[in-house]
Structure formats: C-alpha cells, structure tokens
Amino acid sequence: MNELTIAPPVEDQSAYDLGEMLGRRQAFGMMSGRCSAADAESLRRMRDQKLYQSRATSWNGFCPKFLRMTSRHANRIIRNLEEFGPSYFELAQLTRITPQQFRSIAPAVRDQRIHTHGEAIALIPKNAEKIAAAVADLRRNAALRAGKKDDRINAVDRRCDQLVAEVRRIADGKPAGTDKLVLRAAIRKAIVSLRLADLAMGV
C-alpha cells in the first residue's frame, strides 16, 4: 500500500520552508565567513521572502535568536553572495580569504576552479594546500600591479607640481610680447587637455 504524503497547507508553506532550512543547518557554520553558497542563498531567501515572520516580527530580531548571528553579519553574507556569486564561498571554505582579498583575485576564480599559471585547480578539500599557495601568489601579483599603478600616478603628480612651479617662475619674470603669448597659449592648452582627461575618467 502506497504511503500518503501530506503537504503543508499553502498558508503554512513559508513556516514549513523556514523550519526545513533551520533544521538542515541550525548553526549554519557561517561565522568567520565559512559557509556554503547554499547557506548564503538560504539566508537571502529567508530575508527577501520574509520567511522569518513566522518566528519573529523583524529580521533584526530573528537573526540573533535563530541564526546565532547579528542581522548585520547576515546581511554582509548576502552582499558577498550578490557581489561575488558562489565562487567566493567555495574558496572561503578552503582558505581564510576575506571579501576584500577575494575582490583582487576574483577574475581567476571561476567554474569551481582557481586559475593560475595555466593550471586550473579544483576547489576541493584535497587541493587546499595548492589552493592556498595559488591565492597567495595571485594576491602578491595583484599587489605588485597596484603598486606599479600607484608609482605611475605618483610620478605624474610630481611632474605636475614641477611644471606648475616652472610656469610660475616664468610668469613672475613678466614675459612680454611673443613670449607672453606663447606662455599663455601653452597654459590654456594644458588646461583644456587636463580637463578633457578629467572628464574622461567619469565621476
């Protein structure tokens, strides 16, 4: 004889779904960023679909009592899911990488693998040591690239100061005639060019 499965009434579905999610992983294991993408998605569903209302009057009250975390921490986990997708959580379960650190290497993490030096390393526990080394290498390269960019910007800043100082020295000499016209034309050309460069960067 076939067993009869009784589904919860439609009006109780939200409470049933919430109870099922809480029952699967009551503590979630989410502290220190070590939660799965599925856990993060469950959090987002609880909050956005207001499933918590069957247990508490507010998300702020629900989180400490039933999730053992603040609503601020829960919202941060959801933001990480929305910004980075599942890849961040897959990597964070294997290494102690922060969202800020992940952001600098994110292009190398895709398809459940971390890509470096022509190698695609699967994000699985047995590769934890290789993954940690790859993350360290990618972060080091990202820092070097950022440093090179900063050096170029600093060099431009220094040259601008030198140019302005030189123009002021010449202007203080009260150039006249053709020299004055040429200097003024150079100043105006520089102003227009720099203004266009400024506009090109956007807000």
Written overview of the protein:
There is one protein chain. With 203 residues, the chain is mainly α. Among the domains are: 77 residues, no CATH class; 54 residues. Helices cover 64% and strands 5% of the residues. Strand 2 and strand 3 form a beta hairpin. The longest helix has 45 residues. It is elongated, with a radius of gyration of 28 Å.
How far apart, in Å, are the first and last alpha carbons?
A: 70 Å
Radius of gyration: 28 Å
Percent in helix: 55-70%
Structural class: mainly alpha
Mean pLDDT over the full residue set: 82
In short:
The protein has 203 residues and is mostly helical. The protein contains eight helices and three strands; from the N terminus they run ααααααβββαα. The protein has a three-stranded antiparallel beta sheet with strand order 1-2-3, covered by helices on one side.
